[in-house]
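Onboarding guide, step 5: your first structure request.
Type a short instruction followed by the sequence, for example:

Predict the 3D structure of this protein.
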Amino acid sequence: MSIAGIELRHLRYFVAVVEQRTFRAAALRLHVSQPPLTRQIHQLEEALGVKLLERSARGADPTAAGKVFYAEARNLLGLAEQAAERTRMAGDGRLGRLDIGVFGSAVLGAIPKIVQAFRQTHPQVELVLHSLDRLGQVKALRERRIAVGFNRYFADEPDLRWEVIQTEHMFVVLPADHALAGREVLSLAEIGREPLILYPRTPRPGFIDQMMRMFHLRRITPHVSQEVDDMVTAVGLVASGFGLSLVTDSGCNLHVSGTVQVPLRKDDQATVDLCMIHRGGDDSPLVLEFLEVARALREPVVEKAGVRKAVVKKVGRVKKKARG
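The system replies with structure tokens like these:
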């Protein structure tokens, strides 16, 4: 037998003989008869071209070469078991790498909770987050550069599936010294007369369309003084006195000194959905495990009002941050 013919079986048999000290005891441990075990050891010595065991009346002891091979054989058997276990883990969705598409304010709310929960139950999985707008996420999903995406709105795509993972409430962000800052709630009519810092239609048309729809339904033409790409910039400009802005519930986690956050009046309220998108028919265990964790953390929505329960508790409460 050549070296190429050496199998894991030969290594297991040799290790058992060294550890049991006799062929008879090794055969009992391996649940094989002694003659086949002896033949396997002879084949191994023939393939390696060295004597591995000294046979005597007392049993079998490893030679100098046998001691070296014993250590290497144990390492190889350990690596083989590790490879098998890691393969099983990958097949169960417990090992590997998962690329996730995220955007702006979503990293302030639901996504950290989902990521933290997934890491707790899947510590061997590497999660990599990519900042991408809606169109970028759709493209990356089709090119398999990401497995799951999170964004505000997704159009129906034949090859992709999306689902609502969180429904958010809208808040008005004002300078702390603004005349309206002490109010418990605000109406669209009141803020429509103020300079507003809102968002352009590119790259997230659905989000600003939803905001403008709120105004148009009440025949209000908002005074848009600035357009910025994200809520972080919007809240920063509010703190600098450029005007008021609208943010989602997750945007309220931006605690910027010199600003307060006041909920919109219930009659004027609109909800904004955070959606999770993935490839249709993707049966990767890793992806399925992640989707299951995200769904388990989906926040309940009050059907009648269309407002999240956690948000209802916030209505009537002003979130303030003193000037630093």
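Each response can be followed by summary notes, for example: The chain has a mean pLDDT of 84.
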